[in-house]
Design a protein that fits this description.
By secondary structure, the protein is an alpha/beta fold. The protein folds into two domains: 64 residues; 188 residues, Vaccinia Virus protein VP39 (Rossmann fold, 3-Layer(aba) Sandwich), CATH 3.40.50.150. Helices cover 43% and strands 20% of the residues. The protein contains twelve helices and nine strands. The strands form two sheets. It has a seven-stranded mixed sheet with strand order 5-4-3-6-7-9-8, sandwiched between helices. Strand 8 and strand 9 form a beta hairpin. The protein binds S-adenosylmethionine. S-adenosylmethionine binds next to helix 7, strand 4 and helix 10.
């Protein structure tokens, strides 16, 4: 079996099962099985797969056909230009969340200390530590997620301390910047999620209580204690969360409350400044 034949058969299998982006998915899975870069597929179409490569490729295709996200098979996701390790213990970091980094770089370039609440793979904490040259603290309730995030910080050379905590409970230091992409799916919407998300991504990373806004309502008062005056709190929000999260900001000690939209035009980031 050559690379070309393996690729074509994989594309056909995935397309027949209505898996999105069958060509790209087959290419990524075949590269992972071969432990090669994508260019190899096109420069060596006549490469004969050995038994191990063939078995791995077959297994990856089977897992993808069963609904497992490609990133949990390859164990990696590129995010803000860096490769992050992922496992089923963490949410696969999404491109929309990169807007949180953009907002942080816009308003808090001088931040020397950053807190990331609900860090998952560590994408936000690691990226902000590296982009700002800052020291970061990152929390998560999940011990398994913290292990993945710690590995990412070490591999990418970021200065991040990881703490197992319920949101920011128990922290006492003051920060210049707090970011969070907390779970924000309302309970009733969980059954309507895409199968890949519903069955494979951690429920703890998705469920935001009955309304999808519970974590925000808890984080905002915690942040009032943990930010230095004039510091910023920057959230990712769900597409229906803007009014409730904005109201929670307005009920507190916040000014310069601003909504940012994603590339599709949905409200995606909400930030506020702790009134100096
Ligand atoms: C939506 S995911 C975001 C992960 C990561 N920050 C990202 O943007 O890709 C939310 C994260 O919050 C964590 N989490 C959920 N409830 C929590 C709680 N009460 N305290 C701390 N972390 C929590 C989950 O384990 C998950 O890693």
């Amino acid at each position: 079996m050559t690379t070309r034949t393996a690729l074509n058969q994989g594309i056909e299998l995935l397309a027949d099962a209505a898996v999105p982006d069958p060509r790209l998915t087959a290419e990524v899975l075949l590269c992972h099985a071969l432990r090669r870069e994508r260019i190899f597929l096109f420069s060596h179409p006549e490469h004969e797969l050995n038994t191990v490569e063939w078995i791995h490729y077959g297994r990856y295709l089977h897992e993808r056909l069963q609904g497992k996200p490609t990133q949990y098979i390859t164990r990696t996701q590129e995010w803000y230009g860096r490769p992050f390790r992922v496992s089923p213990a963490v949410l696969i970091p999404r491109p929309e969340t990169e807007h949180v980094v953009e907002h942080a770089l816009e308003v808090a370039r001088d931040a020397r200390t950053v807190l990331d609440i609900g860090t998952g793979s560590g994408a936000l904490a690691v990226t902000l530590a590296l982009e700002l040259g800052a020291r970061a603290v990152a929390t998560d309730l999940s011990h398994a997620a913290l292990a993945v995030a710690r590995q990412n910080a070490t591999r990418l050379g970021a200065r991040v301390d990881f703490v197992q905590a319920d949101l920011a409970a128990g922290l006492a230091t003051r920060f210049d910047l707090i970011v969070s992409n907390p779970p924000y799916i309302p309970a009733a919407e969980i059954p309507t999620l895409q199968r890949e998300v519903r069955e494979h991504e951690p429920r703890l990373a998705l469920l935001g209580g009955d309304e999808g806004t519970e974590p925000y309502r808890r984080i905002i008062p915690q942040a009032e204690q943990l930010l230095r005056p004039g510091g910023w709190l920057i959230f990712e929000i769900g597409y229906r969360g803007e009014a409730a999260v904005r109201a929670a900001f307005e009920a507190g000690l916040w000014s310069e409350i601003t909504t940012g939209r994603d590339l599709a035009g949905w409200p995606r980031v909400l930030r506020g400044r702790l009134t100096p």
